[in-house]
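Regression test attached.
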Amino acid sequence: MRHFRTLLAHELRSALFSWNTWAAAGLFLTLMGALHWFAVLECSRAPQAWTPVEATFRLFWLPLLCVLPLLTMRSFADERKQGTLSALLTTPASPAAIVWAKFLSAWLTWALFWISFTLFPLLVNLRLGASGDQAIYDSATLLGGLCFILVSGLLHVSIGILCSCITRSATLAALLTFITLLALTAMGGAMESLPIESWAWLGWLREPAAHLRTFGHLQDFAAGILDSRPLVLYVTGTLLSLGLAVLAVEGQE
Amino acid sequence: MSEVDPQPTAAVVAEMLTKRYGSLTAIENLSFSVAPGEIVGFLGPNGAGKSTTMRILAGTMAGTSGRASIWGESVALNPAAAKSHMAYMPENNPLPDDLRVEEYLTLRARLKDVESSLVAERVAKVMDDCDLTRRAKGRLIGQLSKGFRQRVGIADALLGEPKVVILDEPTIGLDPHQILGIRDLIRSLRGKMAVLISSHILHEVEQVCDKVVIINRGKLVAQGRTDDLRRELFPNAVFNLITQATAAELKVLVSLHEPAASVESVDTVDTQWNRIKVTLPAHSPLRETLASSMIAAGMSLREIAEEHYGLEDIFLAATRRATTEGGRI
């Protein structure tokens, strides 16, 4: 992992000055702001079984599918297209350091987006002041939901990095990321809805399906339940994706 | 205590290098070496395998078989050590368009293990050497002309003061002034770094390089100093004369001194003067005395010139020989 810090600083600086990052940030904050606004409006009209923060976090898949691919699509695909990745590989910097620097930079940006989102409930709470319902600013759900986003984001961002490694086209990388994340997010729910019990030959899927219930993980985190299984799933999935990404970069040497 | 790298006998070694893409063989059993401090021209027609060889040596592509080493370190087995001794500028010189020249060179210096306290000084030096300080220092790379982009690539190659520099077509797209500047710069590296340089401009290679390696269709066809190759590929000395003597008269005179010589009438100049070509073995003593022998024999001589074989002739002869004989040197 030689030169990791140099590469990470470079990646963070590039992200900061990239129109791509600012466009993604604009899209994310507009989307999340609108979703939260509508949730607050709904709560103001009639009592709901959920809080605005909870409702907004339940829609995490929207920015995940629409914004995250924008953040990761150019990381390797553009460098491969321009040939600058080959130039980088002629230096003593290792492929692992390059992959981890790009991953961590994208993950920190993703985390920063979601941390920025926490300003919305805070602003609504400040605006309503003492007259507001305390449930509007649901700090426990906010913290739990944020933890879920940060932990699951490790896997989601690493998938984006891996998809960007295997193609020269940023558009194709974004599309691959979108499809993979859609499959990953929807898989747990889809499997739960399948009549696995009545199909003996699908019985072996029951347990993996139980582990892949992404929305269940969100609920657990938001409720403050700390289960080690999703942590292991997201961390090992991240390591696997990044390992494959390193192999893909080494394969270009 | 600082560790000093012992100087190996060869800075770059390619030993039986082969690269295949499926059924297509890009290079086959290619072997050559570059001594420390030596500047070597790497020549070949388009598609001969020059860039493939350079990429294997630079560690950006794996060979199918064979061995490549840089400053004694195997490129395949110890890539980090090999890369720490080497800088490579690829043919299309890919650069990030969104960085400024100074920022880019600073980043590259850090990645090339230049000591933190020396980074600014080293960047300033290579920018000065490549004439970038005045006109390109603060500009975005994406806004630079082709010539300046090439200079940035060369500045990057020199940043880490590597033992070996591999330059793939460094002067492509440059104007004559810029070519002169780059040529002087490369010449200034003689004795300090081993330089392997590919170029289509043979005149330029001849002026700069100590040695040439010529490949054709992925195979080595000639290597060595240009004078040695000239003697090998053109074993005869050819003189073009304009004289009043006829080819027959000259043949009689020349045969007295050099029985192996041949004399051939080319054409007539004016009415009394003949253009004649005399071919002598390269080591014939008559090479030095042809003019004086003719004058001593009473033959009037208006012009005498020995044909000079440049690198272009050597290159053409070597590739032609390889094509016709299918052999290699």
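Expected vs. actual: identical. Residues 19-45 of chain A form the longest helix (27 residues).
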